[in-house]
Design a protein that fits this description.
Oligomer: single chain
Radius of gyration: 16 Å
CATH superfamily: Aldolase class I
Largest sheet: 8 strands, parallel, barrel
Structural class: alpha/beta
CATH class: Alpha Beta
Shape: globular
Number of domains: 1
Distance between the termini: 10 Å
Length: 215
């Protein structure tokens, strides 16, 4: 099966169009975060989403942990997928599922060690996919993505095997390590931001090099 590729930190209609033209099957749009790259205003997120072809996944990255706040944000921005970058309690996940029929839910698990396996297993029954990244929620200022760091892919592989849900792999992916990542983890999809950017902007040469290496 062809590995899906999601390009995150999309900041404009032009970047969205470039990513799609290179073969991206999904785009990530980053709302307010405690740290990290790619944050844009919700009005711009909604504008970009309206420009994207229906077949492309539009992932709203949210750091909110309350179902009501996440629902309100989804209704303002209208993505077809909500990516939960921080821990969301089981009761809130259940509420989200009931309130947002037809909207995909993706829970991010920041792989820090063996404990991440149980965290992913707990979330998996309530979401459509798991996304593994390399942040750290325990810092005074949380890291919830966009670190450019690679985590332990052997744990990522075990999470994929344990969860039974589609799995996206993120964290430090580049043209020179993507084949190894695919072979080790066998993810449903890949998610990247910094690896295809220069000076904060989407770089067409890097983007095309990544797609060539991945496929």
């Amino acid at each position: 099966m062809k590995t899906r590729i999601k390009i995150c930190c999309i900041s404009s209609i032009e970047e969205a169009a470039l990513a799609v033209s290179c073969g991206a099957s999904a785009l990530g749009l980053v709302s307010a975060m405690p740290s990290g790259p790619g944050v844009i205003e919700e009005d711009r997120i909604a504008e970009i989403i309206r420009s994207v072809p229906p077949a492309i996944g539009t992932f709203l990255l949210t750091s909110r942990q309350s179902a009501d706040a996440i629902i309100d944000q989804q209704l303002r921005c209208r993505p077809n997928t909500v990516q939960l970058v921080d821990h969301v309690a089981e009761a809130e996940l259940i509420k989200l599922r009931r309130a947002l029929p037809g909207i995909s839910l993706v829970q991010v698990i920041h792989v820090t060690g063996e404990e991440s396996i149980a965290e992913a297993q707990a979330a998996a029954p309530h979401v459509d996919a798991i996304l593994l990244d390399s942040g750290n929620q325990k810092l005074a200022v949380k890291e919830l993505g966009g670190t450019g760091r690679v985590h332990d892919w052997s744990i990522s592989r075990r999470i994929r095997e344990a969860c039974g849900k589609p799995l996206f792999l993120a964290g430090g992916l580049k043209p020179d390590n993507v084949r190894n990542a695919i072979e080790q983890v066998q993810p449903f999809g890949l998610d990247l931001c910094s690896g295809v950017r220069s000076d904060g902007h989407l770089d067409e040469m890097k983007l095309r090099a990544f797609f060539a290496a991945a496929q």
